[in-house]
Write the structure tokens for this entry.
Amino acid sequence: MGNVPTTVKHCLSYEQLIQDYPWLRRWLLQEKEIVPTGVKIQLIDMLSGTGLHVIEATSFVSSKWVPQMADHTEVLRGIQRAPHVQYPVLTPNLQGFQDAVAAGATEVAVFGSASETFSKKNINCSIDESMLRFEEVINTAKEQQIPVRGYVSCALGCPHEGHIEPSKVAEVAKKLYEMGCYEISLGDTIGVGTPGSMFKMLQCVMKEVPADALAVHCHDTYGQALPNILTALQMGVCVVDSAVAGLGGCPYAQGSSGNVSTEDVLYMLHGMGIETGVNLAKVVEAGDFICNALCRKTNSKVAKARGRTL
Amino acid sequence: FSENLQCQALPEKVKIVEVGPRDGLQNEKTIVPTETKIHLIDMLSVSGLPVIEATSFVSPKWVPQMADQVEVMKGICRQPGVSYPVLTPNLKGFQAAVKAGASEVAIFGAASELFSKKNINCSVDESLQRFDEVMKAAKEAGVPVRGYVSCVLGCPYEGKVAPEKVAHVAKSLYSMGCYEISLGDTIGVGTPGSMSEMLEAVSREVPVNALAVHCHDTYGQALANILVALQMGISVVDSSVAGLGGCPYAQGASGNVATEDVVYMLHGLGIQTGVDLSKLMDAGAFICRSLNRKTNSKVSQATCKL
């Protein structure tokens, strides 16, 4: 039989297997209407009761650029933190980091890119310049013993540059890891990756960063997220990012899906005998809640099927 | 792990069996005009697909969508090198199919007793006996027969289905003379876990090069399940253009996996299919316009909007 059972045995030896992120920040960025603070807080509180270990709560970017995250302080202060759950927040620079800590953040995240063009268009600076910015954040975080997670976007393709060399992804991942990020999440930002490109990219990155410090953040724009995640698991990755109800479209393919649904990921993992500690039914409930609040349908096939099974 | 993956050679080529015109349309509510079906098949015929399931010779009383079976068979423009199998539930259907020009047929068994009774009103063993007649007639006429096994990873009535039961039915169909057995996750509940368990059991009874997988995407698991099947040596995959054909057991939920999404994954893995993805997407766009519905293919959705 293939190496799937081996992978299952391997993964079962990890305590905190899967960290799921609802990516509030990302998907809310796509939502045109500003979501009330109360709704965001309720969503996070519901997710806190599902068994998820990590819930990315908000983002300390300037509200001028991201009005959806203007209430970052109220959200962080308003949520009911569950014991043993982490609530990281995005901090693009030192100012954001300081605001985050003042608001009670105990974990932060920084965002690099494997594509120069994407870096320039997204955060208005080159990859090297962004690393200098993040170095400030990471060094300050170290002093305060606040863990920092690093993201690398465009790991399997860029909306502007097209193909991205695995060696470039490895270079950026290595830089973030050596600067002090405890974990590097490799993002297929436009969802173009397949198990083929995922395998090649991870093979390269794993030469520079240990597998147990890696995570995958797959988008489902081309329907490839689950087989890509499966490939990553088979290669020893044990941390997976996902978004409840698969919310958060793709800004580069209007109307298309973006984030992979947490519910669909969980269904696959549980079906493979992999422990996540997460209660799927409760995640479906949280997904139903936020979809009702946003007046939109879920992107999760599991949620759709469960709602309608005869 | 990466060494394991590398050594575990994926097939160089995969044969895609396009079931949209039959399995897909059969599960669409709108009755599609004959000319539309013919045009769809003709578009698919030039996309490089090697096998296109054209229609079904069941009684139109049960499946009104397939009432124009003879006109469709006679109206399509057959491409050389492309097969056009048709479903034949019994001897009468087989005879009508051959008369209408069919040169390959398919028969359907179930791995679940309850499903067999509810779907075709007889037990699994009774259905296999019925197909025996078809097999004999097909052998005499030199017509190849493909066998389908449904509910291989779960049943809407029985729930869990034992892999040994799937292996038993697959073996029976193979021993009867089916050249290929397509294993169907009818309600899409399977995962890479249950897929590998089932395939392990079946491949002990039927050679892996005579097996195909027919995955439904109702729970979003189809592509992951197909990937595992490929890793276990399967090189024939059933799919439906635009992901046509919902799930009759979960209203509004998706059913068949979209051919476009399968081809995208296979090409990304460096696996040859012979299929031209953009021509395939054209066919998908055509049938969706005709049905006045959106595609279920994520590749099509994404490509049209970049």
Notes: The longest strand of chain A covers residues 108-113. Strands of chain A lie at 58-59, 89-90, 108-113, 148-153, 183-188, 214-218, 240-241. The CA atoms of residues 131 and 175 of chain A lie 8 Å apart. The two ends of chain A are 34 Å apart (CA to CA).
